[in-house]
Design goal:
The chain has one domain: 3-Layer(aba) Sandwich (Rossmann fold), CATH 3.40.50. The chain has a 9-stranded mixed sheet with strand order 1-2-3-5-4-6-7-8-9, sandwiched between helices. It is globular. By secondary structure, it is an alpha/beta fold. 51% of the residues are buried. It is built from 9 helices and 9 strands.
Length: 280
Amino acid sequence: MSLTRLSSQHCFGGLQQRFSHHSSTLNCQMQFSIYLPPQTYSGKVPALFWLSGLTCTDENFSTKAGAQRYAAELGLALIIPDTSPRGSEVAVAADGAWDLGLGAGFYLNATEQPWASHYQMASYISQELVTLIAEHFPVSNKRGISGHSMGGHGALTLALQSPDLFHSVSAFSPICAPSQCPWGDKAFRNYLGEDTSAWQQYDASVLLAKAKAPWPLLVDIGDADPFLANQLKPELLQAAAKQHDSGLTLRLQPGYDHSYYFIASFIGEHLAFHAKQLAQ
């Protein structure tokens, strides 16, 4: 699979780069960002996949989170995909809504038209992109996954669906029970149809209630997040984790909201958490 390099900048001794490629899974051209720490000049390093939230692209995290400094110190590659398929041929929300369609792929495999032709983000991340990164970059088979909001939902569900593929998981402000909140209800009803049983495979609280997580989970949410009660519902994730004694550390951070200022404040702790897990 060929890649086209769009940009490359030196950053904390490593390289911050951006690439495009044709995705056979999504049937469109896709872009992703990647940070390669200085340790990649001499060998392979673990990789952390970061999934961004609603309305974001592959560039939000790389430009706002300040993660490269910590990744360079820890020797972690950062893989940052886009949040949805894009292009003139890709379906969009008929009313131009920001929480469905472009920038709102929800990291699932859509089964309903017009979405199913392109919105296969679960397979894209866990199959096509993982393979592409392994083929083209000096990363090891030690992989972590993290994300924010919709991307926090994606990180939790993809990790719980594929515990042998991802070896560490964390999230910022995740949509913890999307089948029980307005954002998730809208997305799942459009992408997956009216049969709510099909929604369960993409609900982290449901998945965690079924089986014990094989690795610890770190989740940070700001207690001043305006979406906390209505959309995020962390209490449901916490209750699910207790059913099988999963190692969930859920921290409500006083005064923090839903923004990238929140992510930037704790991203160093999250990357250190992943580095420790991936070194085992």
